[in-house]
Design goal:
The chain is an alpha/beta fold. The chain is about 50% helix and about 15% strand. It contains 14 helices and 12 strands. The strands form 3 sheets. Strands 1, 2, 3, 4, 5, 6 and 7 form a 7-stranded mixed beta sheet that branches. A 3-stranded mixed beta sheet has the order 8-9-11, with no helix packed on it. Helix 4 links the parallel strand 3 and strand 4.
């Protein structure tokens, strides 16, 4: 996201970066150019007008905002891209607005703070894994006051994303709720591809032949995950694309929402069970596409397919 904002966002002056691991921010700044690195989150917020925040969970988000809101943030626009519970998003909006700032909610999956010289606060979920973020192909879901969403809109389509699901004037928590429920579709897709590939192997159709079908009928994410599975990328890569711990964390939020609303998610629960198997077998290096390896194990095959 930072890279695409720098390359396509027409920034002047430079983007301000902050990460709790300082070396990551410095390395990214060197790679991108037209960036400066702040020594603290408060410094980053002070130097920027629009601030994108992307953190791992509700606790980290609330901790960061309590810290930065200790300073004068009047007139700032925050864009919260962290995936949080809907109630947390609404509470956060109230916290920010009480201090004279604004917010747009747009949940995503990255981990950093970035500031541009003209950005307030809104709910701003995004859909898309890291490779889609790098290519500027995310789907943005901005929620908040319409005039604030309009200020963020120039950084969406054609910059960090390929489209918008517009939640202008909706409660901030609605954007976060869509992010949580959207995960049901993503996990069920991965589970379907994994089960289909294993069935193709065990029935002697062959995984490569099924992959041809997936490419022809389901281009896009289905094909992407099928490719990762059949090539062995799900267990050979040094770092996961989507870590199994992050996937399990979001899955626990989905299941909590389902229980609270009296909804049964049988297919999703199968995917969650396989996430637990991936964590047990691959540890922290496990990737969500390792669900394929877990289905293989259940079906009498080795976790690794090569």
């Amino acid at each position: 996201m930072c890279g695409n904002i720098v390359k396509k966002g027409n920034l002047n002056p430079p983007l301000v970066l902050y990460n709790r691991t300082a070396n990551r921010a410095k390395q990214l700044a060197e790679e991108l150019g037209n960036c400066t690195v702040a020594d603290s989150a408060q410094e980053a917020v002070t130097k920027a007008d629009i601030i994108f925040t992307c953190l791992t969970d509700d606790l980290a988000v609330l901790e960061l905002f309590r810290h930065v809101l200790e300073k004068d943030v009047t007139g700032k626009l925050f864009v919260n891209c962290s995936t949080t519970q809907p109630a947390t998003s609404d509470d956060l909006a109230a916290m920010v607005e009480k201090q004279g700032a604004d917010i747009v909610t747009m949940p995503g999956d990255q981990k950093s703070v970035a500031g541009a010289r003209s950005l307030l606060t809104s709910s701003f979920p995004v859909f898309g894994e890291p490779s889609m973020a790098e290519k500027g192909l995310l789907i943005c879901v901005p929620a908040g006051r319409a005039d604030l969403v309009d200020r963020v809109r120039p950084y969406c389509t054609g910059v960090i994303g390929r489209g918008i699901i517009d939640f202008s004037n909706e409660a901030h928590g609605k954007a976060s709720l869509l992010k949580v429920i959207g995960n049901v579709f993503i996990v069920n897709m991965i589970e379907t591809v994994a089960e289909g590939l294993v069935l193709a192997e065990n029935s002697k159709l062959g995984k490569d032949n099924l992959h041809k079908f997936i490419q022809a009928i389901f281009p896009g994410p289905f094909t992407l995950y099928s490719q990762r599975m059949i090539t062995g990328d799900y267990y050979t890569r040094d770092e996961p694309v989507v870590s199994i711990d992050m996937a399990r964390h979001l899955a626990s939020e989905v299941l909590a929402l389902a229980e609270a609303s009296g909804t049964q998610l049988n297919a999703y629960e199968a995917g969650y069970k396989h996430m637990e198997m991936v964590r047990s077998y691959a540890g922290t290096k496990g990737d969500i596409s390792g669900i394929y390896g877990a289905v293989r194990q259940e079906s009498g095959l080795a976790y690794e397919n090569q």
